[in-house]
Amino acid sequence: MDEAQAAEGASNFSSAETIEKLQLWFENFLDGLWSIATLYQLFAIILAVTLGWALSRRPVKNFSTKAKANENTEITHRFYSSLAAAMLPLLSVIFIWIAVSIFGAFDLPNEKLRIVASLLNAALIVRVITTNMKPGLWRTALAWIAWVIAALYILRALKPALAMLDATAFTLGSSRLSVLQIASSVVIAGIALWVGRILGETIQSQLKQNQRLTPSMSGLLGQVIKIGLMVIAVMVALNAVGVNFAAFAVLSGAIGVGIGFGLQSIFSNFVSGIIILFEKSVEVGDFIQLQSGTTGQVKEINIRATLVTTNDDVDILVPNEEFIKAQVINWTLRDARRRMKIGFGVAYGADKDIVRKAGLEAAAEVQWTDKSAGREPEVWLVEFGDSSLNFELVVWLLAEAVQRPGTVLAQYNWAIHTALQKYGIEIPFPQRDINIRQPAELTVKISEGRSKK
Is-contact 349 424, C-beta < 8 A? Predict the structure, then answer.
């Protein structure tokens, strides 16, 4: 008999043995369902769960309160949320296992207690895992795996089931791969990726709350650590699946060269992000103006792109290399206060002193005007226009006004118009004089409109 036939025979034997054990267990379970021993065990289960519920009420309330109070600290929030979700099954299963030991010490049947304790063990594991996972395929799959393993343990069929999975195998080259090996490798790989993502997000959240780091440095450093942990998780996952890194080295090098040419832009953005981080030319919270004319506040500096939010609450992802290659105006790099010039025109013949008085009154009415010494508002006569005398109201703005250019300009225009109307100063509109060099007979006909009744 060759190896394949032996494996098939072992598989058939394990399957038949497992099915026979399941049938026998189910028959015994039904026979003893209404016995006195079952009632004793049911009473012990109810007592254990009641004690667990009573003792878990206060801890669950305290942990839930702490989790809600630490919503901004991800690792602490998840820790307290997991404890709150696990307290009831944890205390209940402890009391049930104590009951299992007591029943065993007095040679009393404890099979039902063992079943419930195993189910609560599975429920505890499922709660702890799924509390820190988003709803989806992976969460459902992990829950089902935990319940299936618990069911096989309860039926005392876990070892035969594992033997059956190990016996179901196929040969790939010189290697023998069993279903058990593949399944365990996939589970280990999934757990490694999940743990890597959770650790990365937790460390990233902790760095963002570190007061000793600037927001831009903590954001970029958190991204680098997260990617590093995910790379380690991928390596662990590949190793669990059985990938030979020595044989994979040449192929990975060739793939790396090919990907490098295709990912030049991403690498350039990554290096640009590091340069921005150390130069501190752009930081989180700065108000900037891009070369396209778009203005907004820097919200995040990530590995590939920087998130800029405009005053219209529009999020723009700007590649990091744009801050290195193109011109970027940073309104808040050294000093958030800046000077603004608001142009307006008045008719020829207007009193310049009254125009200045009106402009200064308009500046005083706007809340964004900086009135500190050396930065007083001024009114300049800048141009003799075709139809008007053109002035500029020159004001220094407070720091909080820099991030509201549209609103600030609108308020100054409104105040200037109100002040000019107050003093009766005319705002002209363009006029043109027509000179006829060769006079000719010009007939003007005025039509009388229809009378209205």
Answer: no
- Residue 198's contacts (CB-CB under 8 Å, 6 or more residues apart) are 78, 132
Average pLDDT on 45-53 reads 87
* Torsion angle defined by CA atoms of residues 369, 372, 373 and 375, in that order, rounded to the nearest 10 degrees: -30
Q: Is the pLDDT of residue 337 over 70?
A: yes
Both tokens of residue 379?
Answer: 């009114």
Task: Go through the domains of the chain in sequence order and give each one's CATH number.
Answer: 3-167 (no CATH), 193-271 (no CATH), 280-330 (2.30.30.60), 339-422 (3.30.70.100)
Write out the two tokens for 279: 């130069």
Cβ-Cβ contacts under 8 Å for 356 (sequence gap 6 or more): 379
395 and 370 in contact (C-beta within 8 Å)?
yes
At 244-275, the pLDDT tens digits run 555 556 556 655 666 566 567 777 777 787 78
- Name beta bridge partners: 316: 308
**Helix (H/G/I), strand (E/B), else coil: 33:** coil
* Rounded distance between C-alpha atoms, residue 133 and residue 43, angstroms: 35
